[in-house]
Amino acid sequence: xxxxxxxxxxxxYVQRKxxxxxxxxxxxxxxxxxxxxxxxxxxxxxxxxxxxxxxxxKIRANSQLHDEASASRSRLNASAKEAIARxxxxxxxxxxxxxxxxxxxxxxxAEMMGQTSATFVTDSLPVAQRxxxxxxxxxxxxxxxxxxxxxxxxxxxVEAISRMHFTVGFFGANGVTPxxxxxxxxxxxxxxxxxxxRQTQHAYVLCDSSKFDRVxxxxxxxxxxxxxxxxxxxxxxxxxxxxxxxxxxx
Length: 250
Hints:
The protein is an alpha/beta fold. The chain has helices at about 5-15, 20-30, 35-45, 70-75, 80-90, 105-110, 125-135, 155-160, 185-200, 235-240, and strands spanning about 20, 50, 55, 95-100, 120, 135-140, 145, 150-155, 165-170, 175, 180-185, 200-205, 220, 225-230, 245.
């Protein structure tokens, strides 16, 4: 079978099933793991499937493929984000070593933070500024500052995180599904998120209900890797089998 023909069939297979593992595709198409991985890379670049850890999912109609500026996102679902952020603030204990990454809900959380002896580490310039304004002890990670989202990325950022051990961490996500886990549009930011998630004892994803059933191009964690704080759980029964939800009310 020609590569182009196999890739077309894989794209149709993923679209029909919604999500598939690499092992399933290897069996279905009698192909090696390296061949399937190459095919998925090609299909991902052509925006025909979304690559996720261990396989691929279909690109859904409401997928977010590109990051947006924080200012434009901050106006969306503002009351839900405030309710989520309020619960997140209550999870920070005085002696915690806290990681907070970029995102409009994490910025809202930083704006609500009260006086505390906890230490905060962040890759987000807006989060650092707001925590500093609240009198918090803040460590701003070094790296390359991205102008759109105002977070720092790069090898130096990841290397610094790898030496730290956070008692609690708070993460933003552009998309959340059981199959794809937590996803975001940009590879470098996903790499930083993944590194911090790995170093966090108790991880929380701050996720308003609009983020469910979205798949952005790059994954940074499996669905079970964090507790999800949200304003409303999805009605889809697929989500109801999980117990890692905290549902808040505005």
